[in-house]
C-alpha cells in the first residue's frame, strides 16, 4: 500500500500573548505515517493535543518545526510550508475534514450543502445530487428537510448533514474530528460503515473517536500522544 501522509517530528507550542506570554507546549515531535486504506486513531488523555494535531494536519495552525508531507496530485507536498492558495487546493482535492459541527450557510438547502464539495471537485450536478440523496437517506435525515436550510435543524440533524457533506467527495485523505460524538447507535453504525467504505476505496484516514466501540471498529493503528510538560512563562531574549 502506498503512503499518503507522513508526519515527522511536528512541534507546536501555543503562546498566549495576551496572558503574560504564557507558553503551552502541546506537540513535541509527533511522527507517524498513514498508508492508503488505513485509519490511524489519535489517542491520549483529554488535553494532550489530539485536536491540535488534527488541525495542524489540515493546515489550521503554523508549526514550530517538523514536516507534514501529503501526497497531493501525484507529488509530495509539505503542508507546513504550503502557501494559502495551495492549501485551498489541497483542501478542495486531497484532504477532507469531517467534524461534528456544521458551518451553516443561510438560505442554502441541506441538499446543496452536501453536494457542494463534489461540485467543487468538478463533479456534475446530477451525480452530486444522486450521491447526496443516498447519503442523506443512509444518515436518516428526513426527506422533508432536504430542501430547507439547515440553520433551524436540530443539533443531530446538522451533524448528519455535515457527515454527508464530508463523505460525498472521494478525498484521498480524510481527517475525522469526533464525527460520531452524540450520534445515536443507529447513526453511529452508519458512520462506521462510511469510514470502512472510504478505507476500502483507498482513503488514508486520521481520526479522533472518544467512543471505544467505534475506535475498535475502524482503527488500524493508534497513535499515542504523550502529555507535555505544563505551561512556562516566556522569557525575554
Ligand atoms: N488555539 C489555542 N490556543 C491556546 N491553547 C490552545 C489552543 N488550542 C488548544 N490549546 C491548548 O492545547 C492543549 C491541547 O488541546 P487539544 O484540544 O488539542 O486537546 P485534546 O487532546 O484534543 O483534548 P480533548 O480530548 O479534551 O478534546 C490544551 O491544554 C488546550 O488548552
Automatic annotation (TrEMBL):
SMART domains, per database record: AAA
Record-linked InterPro entries: AAA+_ATPase, ABC_transporter-like_ATP-bd, ABC_transporter-like_CS, CP_lyase_PhnL, P-loop_NTPase
Domain ABC transporter: 5-236
Molecular functions (GO terms): lyase activity
Pfam families to which the protein is assigned, alphabetical: ABC_tran
Source species, domain of life: Bacteria
Keywords recorded for this protein, A-Z: ATP-binding, Lyase, Nucleotide-binding
Keyword field contains ATP-binding: yes
Keyword Hydrolase assigned: no
Recorded family membership: Belongs to the ABC transporter superfamily.
The name this protein goes by in its record: Phosphonate C-P lyase system protein PhnL
Amino acid at each position: 500500500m502506498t503512503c499518503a501522509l507522513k508526519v515527522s517530528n511536528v512541534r507546536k507550542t501555543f503562546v498566549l500573548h495576551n496572558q503574560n506570554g504564557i507558553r503551552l507546549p502541546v506537540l513535541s515531535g509527533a511522527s507517524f505515517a498513514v498508508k492508503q486504506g488505513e485509519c490511524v486513531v489519535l489517542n491520549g488523555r483529554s488535553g494532550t493535543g489530539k485536536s491540535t494535531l488534527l488541525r495542524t494536519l489540515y493546515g489550521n495552525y503554523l508549526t514550530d518545526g517538523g514536516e507534514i508531507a501529503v501526497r497531493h496530485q501525484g507529488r509530495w507536498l509539505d503542508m507546513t510550508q504550503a502557501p494559502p492558495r495551495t492549501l485551498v487546493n489541497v483542501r478542495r482535492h486531497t484532504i477532507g475534514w469531517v467534524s461534528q459541527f456544521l458551518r451553516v450557510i443561510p438560505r442554502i438547502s441541506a441538499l446543496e450543502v452536501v453536494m457542494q464539495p463534489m461540485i467543487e471537485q468538478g463533479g456534475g450536478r446530477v451525480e452530486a445530487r444522486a450521491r447526496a440523496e443516498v447519503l442523506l437517506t443512509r444518515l436518516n435525515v428526513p426527506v422533508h428537510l432536504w430542501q430547507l436550510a439547515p440553520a433551524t435543524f436540530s443539533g443531530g440533524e446538522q451533524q448528519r448533514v455535515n457527515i454527508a457533506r464530508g463523505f460525498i467527495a472521494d478525498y484521498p485523505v480524510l481527517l475525522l474530528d469526533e464525527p460520531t460524538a452524540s450520534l445515536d447507535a443507529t447513526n453511529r453504525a452508519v458512520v462506521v460503515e462510511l469510514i470502512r467504505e472510504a478505507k476500502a476505496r483507498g482513503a488514508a484516514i486520521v481520526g479522533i473517536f472518544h467512543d471505544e466501540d467505534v475506535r475498535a471498529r475502524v482503527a488500524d493503528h493508534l497513535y499515542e500522544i504523550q502529555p507535555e510538560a505544563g505551561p512556562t512563562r516566556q522569557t525575554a531574549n
